[in-house]
Amino acid sequence: MLDNQKSKSRRVLIASSHPLFGQGLVRLLNEKKSLQAEVVGMVSNLEEALEAMQRLKPDLIIVDYDDEKLNRDEFLARFVEGDQKIRVVLLSLQSAKEALVYDRRTLAASQIDDWLKEWPAVNDEPKIPMQNTEMQQKAKHRRSSMRHLIIAGLLVVAVTALLILGLGQVRLLPEQASAQAIPIDQLFDLEFKVIAFLFSLIVVFMLYSILVFRRKKGDVSDARHVEGNTRLEVAWTIAPLITVLFFAYLGGDALAETMRADPKALEIKVIGQQWAWRFEYPDYGIVTDTLMMPVNQQSILKLSSNDVVHSFWVPEFRVKQDALPGGNEFVRDLRVTPTLTGDYKVRCAELCGLQHATMESPVKVVSREDFEAWVIQETGVSEDPVERGRALVQRYGCVACHSLDGTRIVGPSWKGIYGATETMTDGTTVTIDEAYLHESIIQPLAKIVAGYPTNVMPLNYGEQLNDQQIADIIAFIMSLK
Ligand code: CUA
Fold this sequence. Notes:
Blueprint: H1 2-6, E1 10-15, H2 19-31, E2 37-43, H3 46-56, E3 60-64, H4 72-81, E4 87-93, E5 99-103, H5 109-116, H6 134-169, H7 181-212, H8 230-258, E6 266-273, E7 276-281, E8 286-288, E9 291-294, E10 299-305, E11 310-313, E12 320-323, E13 332-336, E14 342-348, E15 360-366, H9 368-379, H10 385-395, E16 421-423, E17 429-431, H11 434-442, H12 461-464, H13 467-478
Helix pairs in contact: 6-7, 7-8, 10-13, 11-13
The protein binds dinuclear copper ion.
């Protein structure tokens, strides 16, 4: 006690027949100044140790755990259990910087924590280590670890190959029908391969560990204590980082590819509204509910919305873009160069209300000649107001909410509505005449038939349609007996 109060420095005796162990430990103790240890001597066997006990009066003996010539059992028996009571630490020198404490039974926990807190311990449980076969066991263990690693590695390769093969059989994407789809599909393909590998890497190692290293019957021992592995941790941080950066580069490249502009692109305005699409061709003055596109020519779609956010998506073209309300500054461009003639379908990919799921319109990719013929046909104007009205209600999407056959969709069906008497939400009754229809088109909120939603009909048809067009639509409604 007196000694401790004067100085905390501990007198250490080293027991090892290897001079290198002593030199290494002395260097280590000198570096770890906080340990306050003073090496007073070095012995290579029990007799020398007993003699040194008298002469040098050490506080602690550090025994070389890896020295096969030393009989550790004897040391422990003599100094721990015997008459010579002194602290003994079994220690293995790993490198110039590291030592492992194998047996700390001879110091109280608080003492050892204080003294050796900087050194990792191998096992808190007291044990007397095996003597001769230890090196052989280590080598054996290393060989078996390598065997497990090779087996698991081969399994990872096999599962990755199977997954890639299997994914190749599944048609994950529809037909590729645009030039913009090519870089997207290439990137998608590569990502799936990398994902297949990552999946295998994680799942194979996990399942292999669970199965092969499960607790054997009757084994009640603790698992081996494993410290971190810096090299492994650096590797599995750097490798994904590089992979992610690489894919970010590829992604940026693919994005640029899909946005590449053709100065001769055909401009088509795409207007979304609850719950229909309208397509306008400013070059030809055509308004239609079917998107007609000439094959192998870039179309620039100018996307906007009359009400809420919609999203233009033709899966065969791969690219997708939102249609936003809010006027000119919110118009979004989407460039599509169709490469395959055929019939497709644009759908809305943004949840936009009741009929979102049915917000689909036909898309036709046709040859240059067919496209020109269609333009000529569309620009010819019919003499019949009912026919003109029929075309208008298709183009402006009215039929998305008003059926022509008596079916109730969102708004009242138009079949037989002209001349009928309806009760309004305020309780009054109204006979449906031309004046009521006109008012309902330009001011939808004025009088609403009871039982129908009040906030669905777009409010801006008065601005979108001229008087002649409104009259044509009314003529069409009146024709639906
Ligand atoms: Cu428009 Cu969903």
